[in-house]
Amino acid sequence: MKFNNIQHIYFDLDHTLWDFDKNSALTFQSIFRSENLEIGLEEFLKVYVPINSKYWELYRNDQISKESLRTGRLVDSFSSRKVEVPQPVIENLSNKYIQFLPGFNHLLEGTIELLDYLQPKYKLHIITNGFEEVQQTKLQNCNIASYFTTITTSEETGVKKPHLRIFEHALQKSNALPHNSLMIGDNYEADILGAKSYGMHAVYFDYYAKNDAFEIHQVQKLKDLEKYL
Fold this sequence. Notes:
Layout: E1 8-11, H1 20-34, H2 41-60, H3 66-80, H4 87-100, H5 111-118, E2 123-128, H6 132-141, E3 150-153, H7 154-157, H8 164-173, E4 181-185, H9 188-197, E5 201-205, E6 218-219
Parallel strand pairs: 1-2, 1-4, 2-3, 4-5, 5-6
Helix pairs in contact: 1-4, 2-3, 3-4
């Protein structure tokens, strides 16, 4: 069943359009090589991915700072692999990760096709909790910035999804009303519950194919969004 009266569509960026997992893995591969670190990438990512997810949850809930997120996830990941890395090296790796990450531009399957399908019909926007200094560069480097009328970041707004104020700010910025607006994202709490609490429509992008029994419109492939829009 298609949504009626939607005029504005808001996307999350990482894990929704931009292939964070692939681009992050390539970033670590590049950094480890340039720093001559003999660390197995596959083994490192097995521990890093869930640790990074946990740190982002803490950051989203204002329980840790941006700097604690950037370095803490590395400290814990190396500790889990029983690899001793001095703090100055951690700081260097953290800085290089942020520097190199937006240079990789892999998108999730179907991103361009979906944006081409939607752009003639709707105003498209981004709402992201990602760091201000990298999100804009990501959009430019993967050649999708031109699809979006507005880009709203948590650092710009001062609060993170699911806080109502970031959705309020994004809609004011784009001159939109909640009942005419749809949020699409991979994080159920931040993207879906946050948007619906503000009165928006929402579709959950089940990026990891968890098949959670949420009572919400959801898809596992971007192309499947066309059945709603």
